[in-house]
Structure formats: structure tokens, C-alpha cells
Design brief:
The structure holds two protein chains of two kinds.
Chain A (H helix, E strand, L loop, with lengths): L7 E10 L2 E11 L4 E5 L6 H9 L6 E6 L2 E2 L5 H7 L1 E4 L11 H9 L6 H14 L1 H5 L10 H13 L5 E5 L7 H16 L3 E5 L3 H7 L2 E6 L2 E7 H6 L2 H7 L2
Helix pairs in contact in A: 3-6
Chain B lengths: L1 H5 L2 H32 L6 H19 L2 H24 L7 H23 L13 E4 L2 E4 H23 L1 H11 L1 H6 L4 H27 L5 H16 L4 H18 L5 H4 L1 H13 L11
Antiparallel strand pairs in B: 1-2
The chains are: A alpha/beta, B mainly alpha.
């Protein structure tokens, strides 16, 4: 694989929920280890884009390439094992499973040795000490912020090459929001690419290298984050903020 | 204390043991049913036929091997395999449709399997001999040891399965898939295989209970039907999809029926379970033995 071919390439995908046409040919790219932001108003198809990449929604047209292979027809569990971690908007941790069991799910893959499992667990507990304290507690008893950490840590157990983060700061206290920012930096340092969907524009501009702005199921604007930090006119135009 | 003397303590004790024995078999049948419902929302009307198939497989294996234990294992494995094949060919294509579709499909399956057994084995009940005779003295009664063993074995199977659910990799996958099928997939759990596996395990539990109960009632093509109705009551009373709830409900209902038959005929005692069902549906529709709905 050449270094300049992107890790993930979405090519003109269209999706439908029943008869309503959600995505009208979305195209985007995420490079190896790159943090990319996806902005847009509510209901423009940001979450659907992530679901289509994770294999939870099958596009009726268009292609999704992951490490140059077409993946849009593969079942989601194969994609997870191939290195696509998905952290959904509502976190969706397994509420009746303990914290440790939630984490263990991603570790039970072929070719993960016992020592590697321990290493990954230790690393997660190192980044999120609160999860270590609560490892035998049911996931449903955690606070919103702790659940968000668990959802991210759980996805990290898959040793993903990319993590799809859907509104990680939604409903969190400001203190937790800055912690999410730090987590994104940790992922970046670990060489994990991130596709970040957010309503929090300042955080997204700060954390990402490039930004796509979605409107009505299409990418309307694409620019380096630095450019938008200097001139936020496109953000005002497409997001009305 | 005159009224205490009027209570037949010896009969009560015997009926308590009877109730627990029947309750454990019922629990074994109902666990498979509730597990399948919990994970794939399929109400399996053919579940009783797996019990019947298990018993027939045991009858055939006994002819060849003369070993009850080999017959029990072969029957469990055989029903697991048949369950997996039936799931893949009949139910999997229907998942996600209107629940009525799978209800009709499993009901049809039940008729097909029953009539297949009738055609293949005829209407005369076959016998599975008890693996050992022995009995213990209970007041004036020789209580067959085999009945106690049924209860112990059923408890062992359910207990083993509970440990598997709690600690096994597949067990955790099953629990995660039951809670959130979509997210389970996104976490790399091979959900299509988990669903097939659960259907096979549920079928095997029904098959094993058919073998265990065979020596008490005889094996015929309709033997599953009596059980399935009561198993459904147990599953609803215990809380749809709750394993622990089903076990408790099975013992609870069997004990009530056993006590009731001290005063009325066993056929009338069967009414008790329906009364419990109606009360549950009226006052606690999520189930008697679940703390909060999932």
C-alpha cells in the first residue's frame, strides 16, 4: 500500500430510509492517522454517513473503500474486525454487561493473544482510570460521561485503524467536553484515524486537520481546518451559527 | 391447633418434591424458549417438537447402543443440528418481518414435524427405560430415584448453561446480542452465527428434556404439545427473555399445580397455571420475576 492512498474513501454514496432519500452522493476521504471533522446542521446525514461506513446502513449506490477494498456490502462485524471502530451518538453501551465485559467483547477476535489482551485492557484502564474503578459495575449504572469513555474504550479494544465518533460531546458537562478533546488527541498520537461528527464547532475545528460540511445529504464545502479557523464564513453559510 | 392437624404434611412434602421435579423439566424446556425469544424476538411454536424429536432420537440410539447416557448426548447434539438447519432454512429469511410471520412459520413447522414423527414412528408410544431403578423410602411411598435425578440433571444443565452465559466468550456475545443486536455487530460479534448458535442450543435443551422425561410418560408424536403450552405460560410469567425468571416461574407454577392436585383432580389443577398467567398479564405484564423491564 502506498502512503498517499487514503485509509478510507467514500465515493458518491446514496442511502434511503424507506422512501426518503438521505444521502445524495456523499464523497469524502480520511488518511492514515488523520483526524477529519464532519459538520452540518441536524438531519443533514452526518450520522447516516458514519453508519454507512460502519456497514450498519447499506448504500444503494456508491462505494466505500477501506484500505482500497470495497466494503459497502460486507456485514458490520467483518468491518469491525477489519479495523473500523464505531462510537454511536447515543453511546449504546451494553447496559446489563459489566464495564469489563463491555471491553472484553472487542478483544475476543482471532489472533489476539492473552498478553496482547491484557496490554490493551491495561492501556484502556490507564487512559480511563474511572473505568478501572468501575470494572465490575453494570455499564448502565455509569454516568453519561463515563459511558462515553466506555464507548470509546470499547471501540479501542478492536485495535481499529479508524474510529467513527458520532457527537461524543453531546449532553456532556463542559469539564467532560475538554476530556473528550484530550481523548481525540490520544487517538491521534496512537495513529488511529478519527472521523468526527460534532455540533461543537470550536472543538471540531481545533481537533481536526480537515473539515467537510454537509448540507441536505451532500458535501457542500471541504477545507483544511486551519483555513476555517481563520475565516468561518462557510460555517456561517451552511450551519447558520 | 386443630387446623394444623388437618394439613396432610406427608402429602405436602411428596407434592413439593413432585412439583420441583416437574418444575425443573419445565424450566429446561422454557429456558430454550425464553432464550430464543430474548435474542431474536421469535416465538417458537415448534419448540415442543424439538423435545419430541430428542426423545425419538434417544429411542433410536438406545436400540443401537443400550446406553441411556449416550442416547441423551446424541439426542442433544442431534436436536442442536436439526435446530440449526431449520433456523437457517426457515427462520433466518423471516427475521425482522412482522412477528406474525415467524409465529405462523414455527406453527407450520410444528405441524410438519409432528406429522413426520407420526408417519415415521406410528401412533404407538415408544418407551425409554429408566437408566436405573432404585427408590428411596418416603413415608409409606417408594419414591423413584430417577425422578430426583431428572431434577438434578435439569438443574445441572441449566446451571452449566448459566455459567456459560456468564463467563464464556459466546455467552457474553449472546448477552450482548440480546441487549443490542446492531451494536453487537459493530463491535465485531458475528451476530448471524450467534443467532444460529442460540437456536441450536435452545433446541438441544428441549431435546435433552424430552429424553429425561421420556421414561415417565412414553414417547409419541404429540408429547411436545403438552409441554409447550405450559412452557409458554412459564415464559410469560417469568418475564419474556429472562432466564432466571423462567426457572423461578417454572418451579412456582409446578409447585402450585402439585399442591392444587391434593384437593382437586390433576386435570383441574392445570387450571392453576392459567390463573397465574391471567393474573400476571393483568397486574404485572412484564413478568413476576423480573425487577425492571430490559
Amino acid at each position: 500500500m502506498t502512503a498517499d492512498s487514503p485509509l478510507l474513501k467514500v465515493e458518491g454514496i446514496h442511502t434511503y430510509y424507506g422512501k426518503s432519500h438521505i444521502l445524495h452522493g456523499v464523497s469524502l476521504e480520511v488518511g492514515h492517522g488523520e483526524v477529519v471533522g464532519l459538520l452540518g446542521r441536524n438531519g443533514v446525514g452526518k450520522s447516516t454517513t458514519l453508519k454507512a461506513i460502519a456497514g450498519l446502513v447499506h448504500p444503494s449506490r456508491g462505494r466505500v473503500l477501506f484500505e482500497r477494498e470495497a466494503i459497502e456490502r460486507l456485514p458490520p462485524y467483518r468491518l469491525a474486525r477489519a479495523g473500523i471502530g464505531y462510537v454511536p451518538e447515543d453511546r449504546r453501551i451494553f447496559r446489563l454487561l459489566t464495564v469489563a465485559e463491555n471491553l472484553r467483547i472487542g478483544l475476543n477476535r482471532h489472533g489476539v493473544t492473552a498478553s496482547r489482551k491484557k496490554e490493551l485492557l491495561d492501556k484502556a484502564y490507564g487512559y480511563f482510570p474511572v473505568l478501572s474503578e468501575r470494572r465490575n459495575q453494570a455499564g448502565g449504572t455509569l454516568s453519561g460521561g463515563e459511558q462515553q469513555m466506555l464507548a470509546i474504550a470499547r471501540a479501542m479494544m478492536l485495535e481499529p485503524k479508524i474510529i467513527l465518533l458520532d457527537e461524543p460531546t453531546e449532553g456532556l458537562m463542559p469539564r467532560m467536553v475538554s476530556q473528550i478533546r484530550e481523548i481525540i488527541d490520544v487517538l491521534y498520537r496512537e495513529g488511529v484515524a478519527v472521523l468526527l461528527v460534532e455540533q461543537n464547532v470550536p472543538l471540531t475545528l481545533e481537533a481536526s486537520r480537515r473539515i467537510y460540511i454537509l448540507e441536505k445529504g451532500e458535501v457542500r464545502h471541504h477545507a483544511p481546518a486551519a483555513e476555517l479557523r481563520a475565516d468561518d464564513a462557510p460555517i456561517h453559510r451552511y450551519m447558520g451559527v | 391447633m386443630g387446623f394444623l392437624d388437618a394439613i396432610p404434611w406427608d402429602l405436602l412434602l411428596i407434592q413439593t418434591i413432585n412439583g420441583v421435579v416437574t418444575g425443573m423439566i419445565l424450566a429446561l424446556v422454557a429456558s430454550g424458549l425464553t432464550l430464543i425469544f430474548g435474542i431474536m424476538d421469535v416465538v417458537n411454536f415448534a419448540h415442543g417438537e424439538f423435545l419430541m424429536l430428542g426423545a425419538y432420537i434417544a429411542v433410536l440410539t438406545l436400540v443401537a447402543t443400550h446406553s441411556f447416557w449416550i442416547a441423551l448426548i446424541v439426542a442433544a447434539l442431534g436436536t442442536a443440528l436439526i435446530g440449526a438447519i431449520i433456523y437457517l432454512t426457515t427462520l433466518r429469511p423471516l427475521l425482522g418481518r412482522d412477528p406474525l410471520t415467524t409465529i405462523l412459520a414455527t406453527f407450520g413447522l410444528s405441524l410438519v414435524l409432528q406429522n413426520y414423527a407420526l408417519w415415521q414412528f406410528g401412533p404407538v408410544a415408544r418407551k425409554i427405560p429408566e437408566p436405573f431403578s432404585g427408590s428411596i423410602q418416603l413415608f409409606y411411598l417408594n419414591y423413584p430415584l430417577y425422578r430426583l435425578m431428572i431434577a438434578a440433571l435439569s438443574a445441572a444443565i441449566i446451571g452449566g448453561f448459566w455459567l456459560f452465559l456468564k463467563y464464556g466468550t459466546w455467552g457474553i456475545w449472546i448477552r450482548a446480542t440480546t441487549q443490542d443486536r446492531i451494536m453487537a455487530q459493530a463491535m465485531g460479534i458475528p451476530v448471524p452465527w450467534v443467532l444460529t448458535g442460540v437456536f441450536a442450543i435452545g433446541s438441544a435443551m428441549a431435546g435433552a428434556s424430552g429424553v429425561l422425561f421420556g421414561p415417565l410418560v412414553g414417547v409419541d408424536h404429540a408429547m411436545g404439545f403438552d409441554w409447550i403450552l405450559r412452557a409458554f405460560i412459564v415464559v410469560v410469567v417469568g418475564g419474556m427473555g429472562s432466564l432466571g425468571g423462567s426457572v423461578l416461574a417454572a418451579i412456582f407454577i409446578s409447585l402450585l399445580e402439585a399442591y392444587a392436585s391434593l384437593w382437586v383432580s390433576p386435570a383441574q389443577a392445570g387450571i392453576v397455571s392459567f390463573v397465574v398467567l391471567i393474573m400476571t398479564l393483568l397486574f404485572r405484564p412484564t413478568g413476576l420475576f423480573v425487577a425492571t423491564p430490559k
